[in-house]
Hints:
This protein is an alpha/beta fold. 19% of the residues lie in helices and 31% in strands.
Amino acid sequence: MLIAIWAQDLNHLIGKEGVLPWHLPNDLKFFKEQTLGKTVVMGRKTYAGLNYKPLPNRRNIVITRQTHPFQSEFDQINVELTDNIEEIVRLGETEDVIIMGGYSIYRLFWPFIQELRVTTIYNEFEGDVHFNPDLSDFEAYEVIEGEVDDKNIYPHKFVFYRRNDEV
Length: 167
């Protein structure tokens, strides 16, 4: 199935100049738990935000229409480039495929996404990318309150959603 994952602040902010506008180790741990061993799909800008380093122990697919999107051939080692979303949708029929952003990639796959994993941080940050999709076709089935401590200073929660069957 296709599963979207993202973190947001109270204003649905998800990015600042290609990276996360906060540091929240609990969210990074959650992301790793949800994606390890799975196929992850991201846009070219999100991959650039990872400093062109594929996520380890995951199949990394970068969506791009550009023939040579990176400055160096080393930037695409251990990643697959494609512009074929139908191929990814078909892959989601046989395995969990994690759609990890950015904004345009979420919008592109939105009609096909069956589950969501959303971290909400109870704070407001400065940034330039917001994502506030209509969740009326989804229902929350699990909420986990994040633990606040010296390293995780922002209150937060992890919410699991599934698309309603009637849709």
